[in-house]
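**Polypeptide and fold**
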Amino acid sequence: MVLSSPAADDAPRPDEPGWLDRLTAILRLADGGIIVLIDQAHPGRLGELVRALLPRNAGLEVHRDARRLATAEKGAVVVLWPDAAQVRWLNMERPVVSHREIRLVLFSDARTSAALAHGAVDFFHWISHRIECPGGPWMPAVRTIRGAVRARARGVAWWGEGFAEALEAALPGRPVSRISAALPYEQLVDAVRPAGRAWVEVMDADNPFRLRRVAWALAEAGRRGRVALLGPSTSLAGFWPAHARPRSPGAALAKLEAAGAARAGRLAALLDLEPEALDLAAAMLRGGVDEGVLEETAAQAEDGGAALACLAAARGIAADSRSPALRAGVPLVARGSRPANGQDWKSIHSRFREASVNPEALRAVVERALLVNDGEVAERWARRWLERRPEDAEALCALGKALRARRQLAAAIDVLRRAVALYERQPAPDPLRYGDALKQLGLSLYYDGTYADAAKPMRRALRLLREAHGVAHPSSVEALARLNDVVLSDGKYAEAEGLLKQAIELRNTVAGREREVSPWSLLHLGHILVEHERFAEAEGILRTALELVLERKEGAQATTDRVHRSLRSELGQALLGQERYAEAESFFRRAVAGFGGRDAEIPLRLASGYGEALAMQGKVAQAESVLRRALEGAGGRKDLPFYTMILAELGRIRIGQGRYVEAEPLFQEARAIEAQAGRTQSSAYVQSIQGLARIWLLRDGRSREAEELLREALAIEERSIGRDHPALGELLSDIAEALLEQRRFADAEPILKRALRIAESAGNRSGVGALLAQLAEVQASMKRRDAADTVRRAIAELSRELGADHPTTVDATFKLHALLERPS
């Protein structure tokens, strides 16, 4: 059965109509076995081909595995999507086509056709006809776009390539504009305003912050459709998910065969290899629906996936197959999944419509923007609120919050003073709102560095809130915590201690009255203790709060999840402070898991703690991944709290790996951000200059410049936490190292003795051995008699801390003995 090669005109042009008519005619007229090559095959055309052949060929077989030809019915029509790995088998077993009189249709892409031509030469010569498969978009994607328009959906959320081709096929001639979600908000609103039948493609909505802004801009502009989000981080409510990525033939057949399908190839083709439709078919097969019913339903409909969704809905079968269900217009979502049509976007539009006539409605949209710390959007809406209500104290307070979120502190302070003045003129101001205005003014002054001025409104806010709501109310507890931060920053340590004791007494007072205790209050108390390094006390309070939440299980699920995440994160911080890194990692990991893979929503403080816990256990690659994802999730917003802390933590990891060239820019960036914001007394600033000093010392030998930076860091820390705080030990040790490099032994000795005294008084004696080793080197260099005694103490301490056989102990022992053997 060796047939001649087809004539040159045997392969119609791709744009020539009737390729399927030509194929069906060839198969109908064939007498015995025949091979027809559908070349340049596109997966989107497989379903079309099978639908064309099925009416005249009820026994049509569709296979991926060429070995199935050996068991095909005699005289059957078989569509084979050949695997390039099976060309050898096809070449050797080619007689099976003639022996079984198979009318074989090879649905082959260009790569596989080339493999057949070179690796199965004899088999390839048996091909009697070649038809080139026309290109075109994948039909499920086209149907989804059309369905979204018919359903007046908000738009489509598109992943992958091919949107332009699918849109042109679905809605020919529609004009399209493309914009970036990274535009300033005001420009974004203008860019998405409706323009007749034109579509708008939105790129770069690759994190929740930008995606949220797009949603708000669409609502504010009044646009209700004809929007495509290209590659968003997730979909938005009211948007139909869409893509042009059919499942591979092998994976499609495996999915259906695992669910019990006997003719998996036919059913997969009738469903156009649509992943969501295939998953639905598999669920229905497992649910007892006959395969013949599924096949008949899909074959008789233009949209097989939508037809199966209607059938599943009628039979009460639940499955998370949103695209087919949306096209069918049926509610077919698995229990616990998000509703397919998502109506909450309509409420956003309605709020904007209401806000145009009712200024009070703007409160909700301003609060939503403030909740996610989007100061630019909050300011825009707050100013609109004020345009309609110029003397509204609450609107002024909202504007002040927005300005502070944008780091415009002077403007925020001025606006908040006006808000407070308006409340003071009212005969009976609402204590909660008045107290909030005072608290916001205090916070703005605090961030501006005027701590003494900040304390006054904070005290008034605390008094007001306690009188109105009691000491255990969350607003009172937060005001207490904020006042504590202010007085501590102002250097009033005795008063800060007293405020902290009030917080602890508050916890002891309400701990026995579980019905009246707010887990949020206990969480905030725990946070206060963590911030003041009362880690063991914080751990006890936070564990109590976690048990309380688990026992009561009250409130909406979203609120409960938020409490769990926050408690686990704060417990991780408490354990991290106690150097219980493995336990801290466990709590951080569970807190991160609570975000369900939404990396961009993970708070930077949580990511910073998680990264540190991993790094301290030597899990450097994991730590770096966590910190890098956190920075990416911040969306370039370098003003966010803990952004610079994460940069510094990444820098420390690089130093530990000896990657100084990569570490230095991270510390430089962190230092510049903090300095530009006027936060030259912050922990992040201290860590950045300490990191730079270490690089200059370890890599460049710039010991004098390193010393200057380290002394600057020490002065900041001494003002913040006192001269005898355990956290100073590392800085003192670094300064001593810089002095040793300069051979200033007499200057280094008192620094090391101070660090040693602090470490020994800390209780756990961590790091004492290393400090004694440094001190011994100093004393030996100065030919001091007490060097030998210090050497013995250092070796004994290192052996106690790490073990006598630990590499660090062994190395230090060798070096210390060598010091004593130096010739005098």
Remarks:
- The two ends are 101 Å apart (CA to CA).
- The chain has 40 helices and ten strands.
